[in-house]
Amino acid sequence: MSATNTPHSQKGPETTHGHHPALAHHFVSMSQQHEANILGMWVFLVTEVLFFGGMFCAYTVYRIKFNTVFQEASNQLDITLGCLNTVVLILSSLTMALAVRSAQMGKSKEILGYLAATAVLGAMFLGVKYFEWKHDFQVHLVPRADFCWEYAKEQRKHADHHDKDVAFLPKLIGKFVGHHEYDPAPTIDQIAQDQKNPESQQARMFFVLYFAMTGVHAIHMIVGFGLIAAVAFFASKNTYGPEYYTPVEVLGLYWHFVDIVWIFLFPLLYLLGAHLGAGHGH
Amino acid sequence: MSAINLDRGVGAGAVAPAHAAHEEVNYLNHETTVASWLLTLDHKRIGLLYLLTITVAFVLGGFFAGIIRLELLTPKGDLLTSDTYNKSFTAHGVVMIFLFLIPSIPAVLGNFLLPIMIGTKDVAFPRLNLLSYYIYLGGGFFLALSLLFGGVDTGWTFYTPFSSTYSNSNVMVAAIGVFVIGFSSILTGLNFIVTVHRMRAPGMHWFKMPLFVWAIYATSLVQVLGTPVVAITVALVGFERFLGVGIFDPRLGGDPILFQHLFWFYSHPAVYIMILPSLGVASELVSTFSRKPLFGYSIIACSSIAIAVFGFIVWAHHMFTSGMSSYAAMVFSLLTFSVAIPSGIKVFSWLATMFKGSISYESPMIYALGFVGLFTIGGMTGLFLSTLGTDIHLHDTYFVVAHFHYIMVGGAIMGYMGGLHYWWPKMTGKMYNEYWAKIAAALIFVGFNFTFFPQFLLGYLGMPRRYHEYPEELQVMNVLSTTGATILFLGYAVPFFYLTYSVFFGPKAPANPWGATTLEWTECTSPPSPHNFDKTPTIPHESYDYSFLSKEAASVSH
After folding, report:
1. ω into residue B161 within 30 of 0, thus cis?
2. A161 to chain B, closest Cα gap in Å
């Protein structure tokens, strides 16, 4: 029954003496199981690359087609918050890597600590994203019926003018707690007029891609929280050690992948128009 | 367990070795509750679950094909309205491609055989395997829902902007179905790739693997690399329909051609998801029934991978008339021609294998022979279409319809039927009626050619696809085609009866009824035990070493 070479395998067909409790019946050894699981995750990540690839392809096509407006639209995003999020996410990858190392050394408490830190950093990332998206809703940059490119540009100009002399830190804090003064919302006629403008349509395409890509990325992070919770649960039961740490490593691969997607999204979405400078309307 | 050892038949030829009188333990009878089937982690049982489900899908897709052929019996649109006709061919395409052809050989025969052929107990991720099945069911549920709500009229290709803006049918529900089923296909492919890489028995080197395994491996690569792209593409169509964003809508600056690129980036390789497994089946059948090792084994193995790779760089040949740079069109035309090379290698290898082989014409071999001929015709007519000049004339005509049916039905389904007959004794432990099996194979071959050969001529004469009316002078060919479809229907109906009959009343199958050399025949009972093997097999010989087989038989008889 048993296909292993361990001396215990002679004892009986139904029991798995001498096996690690985590060894599934159809694997010969822990190392085979580990390698299969790791390869499985890598293959899955390849499919993820192609899944995001469809959107990166659409982005490339429209960026070439609508080059100028894409730069201006990119300039409407908040580079400071984008940088902040990049730092936060890279830090979370560090804590995830440390969690894998702790698992290899069998230190369950440390695993839990590092996983918690990863989750907190991930939550910070989504928190910042929440404020960014909220701002986009307020200035009519969400690609739906009330999308209004002129209005958004005006608001950005006013805000930059207003913040011109504010120091960096208060300005950063103001992005979360400050009360922006927006002009009265554009009328239906203004919106209708704006949406006939090709530039508005092209900017709208940028924001379609922006929301699709950052949205799908955010969904992947939320899935990551679920996976972290599951792995943390097993870590709390001292499941992992030098013999068996595969789930932690698989989770780590997933998390690093989600991180790397952001490393590509950040320059493509945020830095594309950086050379235009803050407050540059046209 | 010792009973299984005694029962292991090693004899060549069709004579069943004497079996122990008592009931042996196998994967079919070791647990019999409904839950043990619906929640099984056994790759063999999951294969059978797929078999039952895709048979239902095949009947459904065939029903719509029947409606289409009935409508085309007369030049006037007198059976269906144009709208119903549009919905019928869409339903035919969507059901046959996503619910039947793509899962057919990989999910049924691949699931059942791949682990056994490489000498392991199960696929790498048995729970994921079961999950794939239920994801498939979930996607099928959405597609069924889209039919119940009144169908979809876009064609299986969901071209924008019609699908995203104008169509009033249930595009969203169908798109969700396609999206969901895609993940089933991805997870199956992932499972097989890891299984082949990490689960091979000791001694099972890459170039000792049966060619069916190579074919399934190449198929899995395509599934894993292609399917995510169509998933995100239909998701974008969904965004566009639901939120009114204009990614593919020219009124909002979007580009409908981008949709076609993204769609065919998956859907052309998807053709190879459907045909590659059949190529693998054909290799097994040709070798077994010629009793000769395959000519150019390693070349055939590599040509499967080559087809998978080439399949990814030819997608735009579906778009020669869509408005594409003529330089791009030339490159895609040239690349498309190059796919013929690995396909041709396979055909010549099969012929060389049969040459001076001792061929026996059992029903699986008849399917295999039919497959080789029809696949060749289907492939060669593909060259007409990849030639830029002739494609302008033939694009979107019945020539295209005939071409891809020669590949999909003449190729993929013939291979599936051949494989099903070949491995039926292994899967069920019962022999079917060989006489009726031969009649069915002949009916399918004749019916298929009557159905689709006239369509080449119709297409050449200019009859466009997807119209339900046509000029009167084309009626003769259309009547021929519908007559052929009726014969084809009979050909598919007959196996349903004798195969079902065999499960209950068929004689017990010996372990190796065909005298084949791969592990599922030489190391397993029919049907296999729950964990396939009593002990992990060692692989002493090459995959198609018939001298080994006769030596072993001789040593047993001593």
Report:
1. yes
2. 32
d(CA A4, CA B536): 9
Q: Average pLDDT in the A23-36 region?
A: 91
pLDDT tens digits, residue range A32-52? Answer: 999 999 999 999 999 999 999
DSSP B315: G
Residue A169: is its pLDDT beyond 90?
no
Which residues in chain A are closer than 8 Å to B253, comparing Cβ atoms?
A: 62, 65-66, 198, 201-202, 204-205
* C-alpha radius of gyration, chain A, whole number: 24
Minimum CA–CA partner of A34 in chain B: B198
> In this structure, is residue B245 part of a structural domain?
yes
- Note whether A185 and A155 are within 8 A (CB): no
Instruction: Assess B528–A contact: CB distance below 8 Å, yes or no.
Output: no
Whether residue A116 is predicted with pLDDT greater than 80 in this model: the reply is yes
CATH number of the domain within which A104 lies: 1.20.120.80
Q: Looking at the domain assignment, is residue B19 inside a domain?
A: no
If contacts are CB pairs under 8 Å, which of residues 252-271 in chain B contact chain A? Answer: 252-255, 258, 261-262
Output the pTM of the full model: 0.91
Token representation of residue B121: 């107990």
CA B233, B235, B240, B241: dihedral to nearest 10 degrees?
A: 120
Distance CA A43, CA B305 (A): 17
Distances (CA, A) of B109 to A130, B277, B416: 48, 9, 8
pLDDT of residue B547: 81
The answer to whether residue A6 sits within a structural domain is: no
Contacts of A198 in chain B (CB under 8 A): 253
Helix (H, G, I), strand (E, B) or coil at B155: coil
| Residue A74 distance to chain B (closest CA, Å) | 17
Q: Which domain holds residue B457?
A: 2-14+25-557
A74 within some domain: yes
| Residue B24 pLDDT | 80
**A10 part of a folded domain:** no
Q: 3-state SS string over B31-97?
A: CCCHHHHHCCCCHHHHHHHHHHHHHHHHHHHHHHHHHHHHHCCCCCCCCCCHHHHHHHHHHHHHHHH
| Residues found in chain B | 558
Q: Which residues contact A216 (CB under 8 A, 6 or more apart)?
A: A51, A52, A55
CA dihedral B35, B508, B112, B62 (to 10 degrees): -90
For residue B30, the Cα-to-chain-centroid distance in whole angstroms is: 30
Q: Which of B197, B226, B232 sits opposite A39 (nearest CB)?
A: B197
Our count of domains for chain B comes to: 1
CB A125 within 8 A of CB A85: yes
Specify the CATH number for the domain of residue B217.
Answer: 1.20.210.10
Q: Is B249 on the interface with A (CB under 8 A)?
A: no
**Which of A145-159, A247-261, B82-96 comes out lowest in average pLDDT?**
A145-159
| Percentage with pLDDT > 90 across chain B | 82
Q: Which of B419, B413, B410, B414 is nearest to B288 (CA)?
A: B419
Place of tokens 């990540």: A45
Phi, psi angle pair for B129, to nearest 5°: -65, -45
Nearest residue to B401 via CA among B348, B481, B465:
B465
Please give the structure tokens belonging to residue B479.
């009547």
In a domain, A12, yes or no: no
pLDDT score recorded for residue A185 = 86
Q: How many domains does chain A divide into?
A: 1
- What is the reported pLDDT for B89? 96
From the list A28, A51, A62, which residue is nearest B228 (CB)?
A51
Kindly determine whether residue B231 and residue A212, on different chains, have CB atoms separated by under 8 Å: no
Confidence at residue B9, expressed as pLDDT on a 0 to 100 scale: 38
ipTM of the complex: 0.89
Residue among B92, B77, B88 nearest B405 (CA): B92
Mean pLDDT of A255-278: 90
Contact B75, B475 (CB under 8 A): yes
The residue ranges of chain B whose pLDDT is under 70 are 1-23, 540, 552-558
Phi then psi dihedrals of residue B464, to 5 deg: -75, 150
